[in-house]
Amino acid sequence: MDSIEKAMFGRSVSAVTRPPAVIPPVPQSREDVIERAVNLPSSAPITSPNLPEAHRRTRRSVTLDMERIRASGLLVPDSQRSRIKEEYRQIKRPLLMNVDGKGAAKVDHPNLIGVTSARAGEGKTFTACNLALSIASERNRTVLLVDADILRPAVAKMLGFEGDQGLVDFLADDQMELADVLVSTNMSSLTVLPAGSKHHLSAELLAGDNMRRLTAEMSQRYPDRIVIFDAPPLLATTEARILASLMGQVVMVVEAERTLRAHVKEALSLLNPNQMSGFVLNKSRDLITSGYYGKDYDGHDGQEFGTLPPAGSIG
């Protein structure tokens, strides 16, 4: 499987910080539900099944099969060196610097990181999972990986477990606590929020007020956590653009030798120009220079990078 070849955070970012997003007032009952789940101590998740229910952060825990994860091409956080680990070190460093306030510009909600693409199949789920695994392996970092691609969920399957209830169920049920749908793992620093059940209004739920409130609460009451969203492709639905607007940082996954420049330009035009955003070139077979994607996007509209069939990662 071809891995991520290079992370390129070359898109210019305005130094002007955009005004804070206007979040509708949160009804007291709903706010209490969210706060109980995210306004928690900064220690790692407690996953021991022997503890009383009141002391658990999540209602469910799964054991990730690291050998299965390794065989699927994903990053395994162990002491062995590998090319994919080095690649994701390059990808995550600028993101973590922005979270820590050490980046080139300040942004709102920098700990909310959306991973998306222009079209489906370019490797965004593969990238989101690897990014979460890589950051979760760091000291003093904890990660919540959210499958927000609710029409085509893939995070739970990629990590090797059944998603069951998740984000959709929480957004649809005002009586449900977030802890009911969070899934802790045998990596104490990694928690997963699956996409959840099918719902006839799933797209509307993703673009609704409850999602806005949830992301705002995650950022403000969960400031020491990195929240990574596997987001829908930007050109797939209007809801994907709304979700992207709630993120502090956006990672755009581009498939080497297949993605059209015109599609990438169109997708970028949908993002807030003051958002922190950058590229990950996925499935590349050759080493490239940092200028492969960059200022030359202004020309060659519609040029195709190649005709290789999709291979490797999914998303």
Automatic annotation (TrEMBL):
Q: Which CDD domains match?
A: BY-kinase
Q: Which GO terms describe its cellular component?
A: plasma membrane
What keywords sit in the KW lines? ATP-binding, Kinase, Nucleotide-binding, Transferase, Tyrosine-protein kinase
| GO molecular function term, any single one | protein tyrosine kinase activity
Residue ranges occupied by any AAA domain in the UniProt entry: 113-256
Q: Which reaction does it catalyse?
A: L-tyrosyl-[protein] + ATP = O-phospho-L-tyrosyl-[protein] + ADP + H(+)
The UniProt entry, under PANTHER family, shows: FERRIC ENTEROBACTIN TRANSPORT PROTEIN FEPE, TYROSINE-PROTEIN KINASE
The similarity comment for this entry is: Belongs to the CpsD/CapB family.
The record's section on SUPFAM superfamilies has:
P-loop containing nucleoside triphosphate hydrolases
Tell me which EC number(s) this protein carries.
Answer: 2.7.10.2
Name assigned to this protein: non-specific protein-tyrosine kinase
Q: Which domain of life is it from?
A: Bacteria
